[in-house]
Amino acid sequence: MAACIVIGVDTWFDYRKVWAGHPWLLVYAVIVAVVFGLGITGFFLRGPLLLLFIPALAGVYVHHMLVQKRL
């Protein structure tokens, strides 16, 4: 049980370390977060912004893979 908690904490520090070395990945993460927020907003407003939700999930996955590659 304790090992799972330690792994979760280390993940945040890994992301911060990669963002410090590659600031463009932090910018990419912010853009993906904004697009994700717009997709969620579109979901609740039943608007066309809803279409941004799936690409935002793909963006989160790509960001995660880029961070893991640079670790």
Describe the structure concisely for a colleague.
The protein is built from three helices and no strands. With about 70 residues, it is mainly alpha-helical. It has one domain.
Topology record:
Elements: H1 2-21, H2 23-45, H3 53-70
Helix pairs in contact: 1-2, 2-3
Number of domains: 1
Task: Give me the count of strands.
Answer: 0
Shape call: elongated
Q: What is the helical fraction, as a range of percent?
A: over 70%
Task: Write up this protein.
It is a single chain. This protein is mainly alpha-helical. It has one domain (2-70). It has three helices and no strands. Helix 1 crosses helix 2 (23-45) and helix 2 runs antiparallel to helix 3 (53-70). It is elongated and about 40 Å long. It starts with a helix and ends with a helix. The relative contact order is 0.14. The mean pLDDT is 89.
Which labels suit this protein?
single chain; 71 residues; mainly alpha; 86% helix; elongated
